[in-house]
Amino acid sequence: TQYDTRDGIPKALQTAISKGAELIIGPVEKSDVDQLFQSYHYNVPVITLNYAHDLQNSDPRIYQLGLSSLD
What we know:
By secondary structure, the chain is of the alpha/beta class. It has helices at about 10-20, 30-40; strands at about 25, 45-50, 60-65.
């Protein structure tokens, strides 16, 4: 299932989790990944499709997967 993130990552996360998501894949945009790190407090694992700007503030429930155009 896909959820619209135009209203913000926290709202999309809350909707997905309230509907029973056991794993979240996304977001794609770097700014959305940053927003995810700032607001995440759930126990559902997340696989992002990009990296956060600040890799020092990682959460063990969030896995970051991104491909560099240089690879």
